[in-house]
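pinging the channel bc i need a second pair of eyes. not urgent but kinda urgent?? the chain im working w is below, pasted from the shared doc
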Amino acid sequence: MTSTAYQQMIFVNLPVNDLDASKKFFTELGYSINPQFSNEDAASVVISDTIVAMLLTKPFYSTFTKKEIADASTTSEVIICLSAESREKVDELVEKAGAAGGTVSDKVQDPGFMYGRAFDDPDGHTWEVVWMDPAAIEG
């Protein structure tokens, strides 16, 4: 008898200035928008089967917190890190982000067993993309 293991998901909620511009940016990176969980106040960006970025207009985002919304272009509260299957895929996604209007960091992490780069989306949220050598993870 086989049972499927529960796959825990992560939903990253991000406040955005211009929902349409943010949707365009993420679809240009190759991600899709799930219309079932999207409306004029939010867009559900499907990154993988277990990772979803919820882009929320700032007024809608503010209904979930009493805290001040950080200006991600001048402050940092979180860095979102995505894995990639190869060094080439790291470069590919970061270059797509730059071409789609993101700001690409010139810093490269390359200690040999790992390779990473980063970009900021149009709202200033920082996204890292990292490949790690499977042999380094196992050993």
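so DSSP finds four helices and eight strands in the chain. and The first strand starts at residue 10 and ends at 16. — does that match what u expected or am i reading it wrong
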